[in-house]
């Protein structure tokens, strides 16, 4: 079995550190009022201990689950963005040519949304309680490998600023990690990942939904990768950290998925 695992390109990771990451600690709890229940001490001591089986007079009342308060449509000041604001901001940011001409990670029309965050106040607005709230909406346009960030005024609903960068690579989104896994599973380089998944679960790996995924951006470095990955940094390239759902980690760190070119490659292990 040991030799079999070594042959797999995506070998199952073992060891105390990884086991600790995936195992919940069991904690034993001693309930108050039970210790010494069978002991006697003094007149009537045993009888009194036996009777103390319920909560004492100072016990806290049972908890009550209350309905969460209704969320307001709009926040104020530095409040987190509400669901309503998130929807309005994304709609405003997507209006125009970006929505019509952009391309997401799967190749569908429209750019790939990465994040929506409350924008920092403009100069001179830090101490102004009536300063407008703004949101920064980040997209990645796979059509031309550009990061597009739009700043939307939450009060007016208008885009106040658009910033476009090439070579800027924020962390991948959940959708991008899933697409990277989908490409890897379909690639010959995904054979080790699928074999290890089968060893761990007895089932075939056919979908990213069967894995817990996180990812990091890979940038090309001279002499550190095969030529097929030389564009990483300009292209959007991802290294995956893969885990069987409710199971072990599978090592896929030596595999890189170029989401822009939709290709996979293995880094030199030496």
From TrEMBL:
<feature type="region of interest" description="Disordered">
    <location>
        <begin position="38"/>
        <end position="86"/>
    </location>
</feature>
<feature type="compositionally biased region" description="Gly residues">
    <location>
        <begin position="38"/>
        <end position="47"/>
    </location>
</feature>
<protein>
    <submittedName>
        <fullName>Tat pathway signal sequence domain protein</fullName>
    </submittedName>
</protein>
<keyword id="KW-0732">Signal</keyword>
<feature type="signal peptide">
    <location>
        <begin position="1"/>
        <end position="27"/>
    </location>
</feature>
<feature type="compositionally biased region" description="Basic and acidic residues">
    <location>
        <begin position="68"/>
        <end position="86"/>
    </location>
</feature>
<feature type="compositionally biased region" description="Acidic residues">
    <location>
        <begin position="119"/>
        <end position="129"/>
    </location>
</feature>
<feature type="compositionally biased region" description="Low complexity">
    <location>
        <begin position="48"/>
        <end position="63"/>
    </location>
</feature>
<feature type="region of interest" description="Disordered">
    <location>
        <begin position="104"/>
        <end position="133"/>
    </location>
</feature>
<dbReference type="InterPro" id="IPR006311">
    <property type="entry name" value="TAT_signal"/>
</dbReference>
<dbReference type="InterPro" id="IPR016182">
    <property type="entry name" value="Cu_amine_oxidase_N-reg"/>
</dbReference>
């Amino acid at each position: 079995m040991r030799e079999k695992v070594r042959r797999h390109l995506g070998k199952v990771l073992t060891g105390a550190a990884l086991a600790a990451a995936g195992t919940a600690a069991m904690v034993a709890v001693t309930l108050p009022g039970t210790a010494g229940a069978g002991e006697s001490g003094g007149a009537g001591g045993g009888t009194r201990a036996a009777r103390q089986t319920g909560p004492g007079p100072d016990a806290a009342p049972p908890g009550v689950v209350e309905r969460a308060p209704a969320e307001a449509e709009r926040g104020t000041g530095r409040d987190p963005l509400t669901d309503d604001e998130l929807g309005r901001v994304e709609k405003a940011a997507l209006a125009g040519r970006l929505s019509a001409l952009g391309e997401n990670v799967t190749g569908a029309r429209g750019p790939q949304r990465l994040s929506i965050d409350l924008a920092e106040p403009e100069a001179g607005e830090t101490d102004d309680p009536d300063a407008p709230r703004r949101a920064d909406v980040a997209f990645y346009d796979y059509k031309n490998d550009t990061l597009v960030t739009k700043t939307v005024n939450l009060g007016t609903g208008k885009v106040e600023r658009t910033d476009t960068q090439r070579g800027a690579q924020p962390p991948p989104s959940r959708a991008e990690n899933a697409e990277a896994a989908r490409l890897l599973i379909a690639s010959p380089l995904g054979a080790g990942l699928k074999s290890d998944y089968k060893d761990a679960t007895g089932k075939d790996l056919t979908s990213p939904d069967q894995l817990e995924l996180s990812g990091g951006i890979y940038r090309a470095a001279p002499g550190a990768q095969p030529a097929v990955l030389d564009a990483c940094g300009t292209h959007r390239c991802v290294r995956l950290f893969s885990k069987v759902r409710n199971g072990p980690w599978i090592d896929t760190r030596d595999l890189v998925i170029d989401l822009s070119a939709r290709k996979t490659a293995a880094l030199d292990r030496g």
